[in-house]
Write a structure and sequence with these properties.
Radius of gyration: 20 Å
Order of helices and strands: HHHHHHHHHHHH
Number of helices: 12
Distance between the termini: 56 Å
Oligomer: single chain
Strand content: under 5%
């Protein structure tokens, strides 16, 4: 599957971004990676058996807690797989780069789909790019206890918290829209379609008996997909109505960082003289 002119949300690219990042920062369970790969190679246009899709999502969501930890700055134990003494700047920068890859994916979607959040997404990309440039300055030598680095981690972790439910939402919305041409592609609809599944227990969907689905001679029906969505329960979509509200709340926090960064740069230059 590929990103086409109609702006379809696909199961392929975001799982690949997540797989690559998890593989980079840690030695994750093979089962976790396998669960992601089962989605990566799941082409819904050619699958008539809804049970196959159900199993792939169940496998992934059974590792929900393991997956969630990768949507924040990795801790010392995780990153030690790369280096026994990782540079704290590089650790945060690696996570920011992961977020930027997610942003680039969003910006390549159909313009109509991201119309309500495009400006905010572009601003977020600029702000994260600035932080990477700052953290990459070898003259900074920030320490883990340095207040500015702690502040940066807090802000980018909030961005990660935004992308964690977005990751599952894109997967879910792709299932809902498969085989249907006349489904709204607006970001608000993406959220509203799944917001009713908020706050459910992830363990519940594993206990739900498999729904009997009539063998499809062609492709699955929208009814089949919606039944699956209801079985699987919550995909952790924020109860905010539209994603732009989350972004609008997040972006001012980058502005609050800038005076602290400027002060840090001033002090660094002052001590360098």
């Amino acid at each position: 599957m590929s990103i086409d002119s109609e702006g379809d949300i696909l199961l392929v690219e975001i799982p690949r971004i997540v797989i690559d990042y998890i593989s980079f920062v840690s030695s994750p369970s093979t089962l976790v990676i396998d669960a992601f790969k089962s989605l990566e190679y799941l082409d819904l246009e050619y699958i008539d058996d809804i049970d196959e899709i159900r199993k792939s999502l169940q496998d992934l969501l059974s590792f929900e807690k393991e997956v969630k930890v990768f949507f924040k700055v990795p801790n010392q134990q995780m990153i030690s797989n790369i280096s026994p003494t990782p540079n704290p700047n590089q650790v945060v920068a690696a996570f920011i780069n992961f977020l930027l890859l997610m942003l680039e994916f969003i910006l390549r979607l159909d313009p109509d789909f991201i119309a309500c959040v495009k400006d905010s997404i572009q601003i977020l990309r600029t702000e994260l790019g600035f932080l990477i440039a700052f953290l990459g300055d070898t003259a900074m030598h920030l320490q883990p206890t340095n207040n500015i680095l702690i502040d940066i981690e807090a802000v980018v972790n909030e961005v990660g918290s935004f992308f964690y439910p977005f990751f599952f939402t894109t997967i879910l919305f792709d299932l809902i829209t498969v085989g249907k041409k006349m489904i709204s592609k607006e970001m608000e609809t993406v959220v509203n379609v799944v917001r009713s599944f908020l706050h459910s227990d992830f363990s519940k969907f594993l206990e739900v008996p498999t729904t009997e689905v009539e063998e499809a001679k062609n492709s699955m029906t929208l009814t089949d997909i919606n039944a699956l969505v209801n079985e699987l329960g919550s995909f952790l979509v924020p109860d905010i109505g539209i994603l732009d509200l989350a972004l609008s709340d997040m972006l001012p926090k980058f502005e609050l960082l800038k005076p602290k960064i400027e002060e840090h740069l001033y002090q660094s230059l002052k001590h360098a003289k």
